[in-house]
Amino acid sequence: MVLTSFGLKNVPSNVVLLVEEDIGDVKSVFFRKITSDALRSGKKVFYISTRNSENDLKEEMNKFDSITKPELLTAIGNFSDHIALLDMCYKRHRLYSRLHGENNGSLLHNISEADVCIIDMFAALFVHEDTEVISETIEALISISRKENITFLLSADMGILPERAEKIIRSMVDGVIQFRTEYIAGKINRYINIPKMKGSIPLNKMIAYNVTSQGITMDMRERVG
């Protein structure tokens, strides 16, 4: 996947990664690149969006890069029910059963069929939930990731959730990718910080990058320690 461009060549496929951004929507460009690369390599992708419809998702992806093998892409738009994530992972997960009953609900989509699952914006689903619900959802995603060999990418805008909830999510996931922006003397400097990543040694420096019509490219001229 695109992570190899950042020097992360040994990231396992069965991981749950948190993709954070301080301001902006670069992470969506990042997700579109990952989706495009995954489809091109024959992987099945689930793209779950809380902000866009299914048609809007596919239209945006086609603007970025024509979708190859569209039959491998499942786009789920206008998603707003965090409990449905558990339904798609495990219909009888203990939290789902506690909130909805043992025999309630239908399995509309099965995440276990995917190779890559993107949930954008993950944090927005839990704005009004307590940390127990958040941690149990992360546990469920980690469990199915290990069992079914799925890569999960969860997006978050920094500051959407309480600080304690953000720290819990960072501590539980396998890796954290942070897109950061600095404004200095009329210039915009963009950096990627990867404080933790399963299978990789932590990077010593943040990675400078640019956003172009082709997606995200590393800027080898600038590095921040």
TrEMBL record:
Query: Residues in domain KaiC-like?
Result: 13-220
Q: Which UniProt keywords apply?
A: ATP-binding, Nucleotide-binding
Fetch the InterPro entries from UniProt: KaiC-like_dom, P-loop_NTPase
Which segments does the entry list as coiled coil?
A: none
Q: According to the UniProt entry, where is the signal peptide?
A: none
Q: Name one GO molecular function term.
A: ATP binding
Superkingdom classification of source:
Archaea
Name assigned to this protein: RecA-superfamily ATPase possibly involved in signal transduction
